[in-house]
């Protein structure tokens, strides 16, 4: 039988049937007025998951990495200084991308499992009295370690140092699933991708730029062409595209945003919290620990679980895939072999999460992990029984 199991990797996520259908469209003319009538309101509605009314949203044919490149090439010039913290694989890769573009990156190295280092950001900014730092980079949800950072506190650190740098935030694995407040947090560039909270196939980088970032676009000297936001925003305002759009993905995005807004973003966030909390209860019942060093750092879209000494998490993930046809995320970079990740974002329900927890248990038991079969499932069941959204709607 064809594998019908959901995936539990932290993106690409499961694609709802409704979105699969929406992405499957016959060719239609992207230069027609009809395209504009669909696209202009979509760009408007996309502001909601970003939490912005002041910023403008652009949709590039790319993945999240293209969104990172868009953020920096449109606002910075060769040799500019940026301040970034490294606390996982994705913060590392964004730093690497900046360095390859000739930026001078001041890196604050943190333990993997930590979040954005607020005090270190504040100190570095306060010490930068001649304001050489042009941008502060932060990954809101570090997918490699299951850590959510406090972006509002990063903004407070910048304000406390009275520093004029821009704030760029990677929301690739949070936007559309977890609360993101671009305007309130004073974020100047925010980056998302179609294959995470938007539940679509990979292929779109969705970027929001504040008025301050858009002003920086006019003087930034880093070379850009395909990712030039000036072209994209000018075209988007008229309901068109500077080149051929990925029309199927954009149709899918229209439907995805419809789904998110129909559920209500607060409900979407609450659902992700509830599902994540059930997974965390399961991990505790197994007697295992998450990678996030403090409970307030726990991500609601992905849980990274440390395996006991002497076990190899890559082997576990491969075993679960080959034996039970279920995919979890492996550990990346310096945590390779040490943790596995349960992705629970996008199209996910309590019941789906239970199947992932049960499968992880079976695979661990098969491989001799010291866990009790059913313990994690029972702990999550108790939590979901007490907090079921469906039950709450009926009362
Ligand atoms: N940022 C985060 C937090 C991610 O999780 C990912 C991918 O998983 C990326 C950036 C890179 O995005 P992409 O692989 O879509 O280029």
TrEMBL record:
Its cofactor is pyridoxal 5'-phosphate. One of its GO terms (molecular function) is alanine-glyoxylate transaminase activity. Substrate binds at residue 341. Keywords: Aminotransferase, Pyridoxal phosphate, Transferase. It comes from the Bacteria. GO terms for biological process: glycine biosynthetic process, by transamination of glyoxylate. Residues 50-326 form the Aminotransferase class V domain. The modification N6-(pyridoxal phosphate)lysine is found at residue 196. Pfam families: Aminotran_5 (PF00266). Belongs to the class-V pyridoxal-phosphate-dependent aminotransferase family. This is Serine-glyoxylate aminotransferase apoenzyme. It comes from Aquisalimonas asiatica.
